[in-house]
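Z., the sequence and structure:
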Amino acid sequence: MPSQTEFLIIDGETLSYEKIFEYIENPHLQVALSIEAINRVNHYRSAVDQWLVDEKKVIYGVTTGLGKLKDFVVDERNQNEFQRKILLSHAVGLGPDFPEQVVRLAMLLRANVFARGNSGVRIEFIERILQLLNKGVYPCVPQIGSLGVGDLQPMAHIGLCLIGAPEGKARFRGDKGISPDILAKAQIVPITFEMTAKEALSLIDGSTMVLAASIYAYYQAQQLCKIADMAAALNIEATRGEMNALDPRIHEVNNLQSEQDTARILREFLEGSQWTTDEGRKRLGELKPRVQDAVSIRSTAQVHGAIKDVLQYIQSILDREMNASKDNPLIFFDGVNFESLSGGNYHGAHLSYALDFMGIVITDLAVISERRSARLLDPFMSYGLPTNLVAKAGLNTGFALVHANATAMVGEIRILATPASVGSIPAKGNQEDHNSMAMGAVRKLMHMIELAQQVLAIELLVAAQAIDLISENMQGLCMGKGTFAIHRWIRLSIAPMWEDRFILPDLEKMIEFVKSGQILGQFPPYNMKKIAR
């Protein structure tokens, strides 16, 4: 049994990005409901039970059909069958499955929404979600189908697994199979679970999968920004960049804290560098003061800082969303009476706009990285580095084709940056005549992040190569303490290329270092004091 310190307690009100970050980083963290949440859920559920049995109250999706069928009555005697049929009719998602991390987050987030009480589900239903989650059973959830006004299709696939239906599929410790088999392997008892009134609709309503994927994409984007700072610093070292552009006075007067922080991080990576001095530049024949570098070098702090500022805004949206009642209808208690109200809190507009915004800044992060790495391959733009970053050009092609990948990926990212949120198309007999299209927004964002990770990996690879090619010229001059450590760490796994060889495995290794965040674990960019020669 895990100790108390290994539990994440949810109550529908205090889930934060910091807690989510811990949950992403620690797959063994167990989730439990707070006592206050348990009492609140039981209190609100009592209203649903009373309305069904005593008052025969008309409630959308409980005593009525769904969507265009809202005027059809569902009898109280048919509630259990209704829940199952909701899942079967909605679990029609297509395409590849979401990563397990995203599904895991979606289950956590939905349980947290239910902990608020407004959805009116039973405590047993929330505990069923947490039972699968804590055992490591993750439903297989297709990515295509949701229009971003409630993730109906993907969440219905989760529902089939929760009830142990053979139509559902799930994974457990690397095994994939139908829900009953996987639940049995995980020793989940009972294997079959019956949903009662309102629970199937409450599960599938709300943009939960979009929110989960958005949070995971944001987590990756944050990592990407830190790696981009590392790549830029290594690039500045390789091109013997002009350090005046990082002077704190410049950034203080621009009045953007994230920019000031970025400039500080770059200075710390480059602290002690003698390559980035007039003496260092003279070693490759640069006899006059450089004065200033090109914009992609000189304005890195400004661009990276602006990107981080946008991400901070997006985090504020995600923080609010994860503790919001995203459901329809919602149940309210005024201290005396309960009331059921239908509305539109399932709508994913806020997320859709934020996702498009995140896609824009991830695009520019990739664009400026590609421009910095392109300069390294050109002797004129790099102030004397060998053509294509190879010692003997002509006989050897060097890194030209490696860098061409970055160019191709930036072109693709730019196409994907087209906003999804402006593409509403009416659906379901025009009952849902405005859709946020947030699922499309997050799906393309996940692909954009994957491409941007590869663009940054290329910058790191070619910058490390550039440093090797001129290190002999720089004999007696120190690199920055951080850039020296980054270069040394890369070279523990990837050798420099003096003549053409099959470089693809090295490129793939660098991409994995970036995707996994492994490179960040070695060099925390916000605590450079830990880095020593």
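Confidence is low (pLDDT under 50) at residues 1-5, 525-533. Residues 494 and 506 are 6 Å apart (CA to CA).

Let me know what you think.
H.
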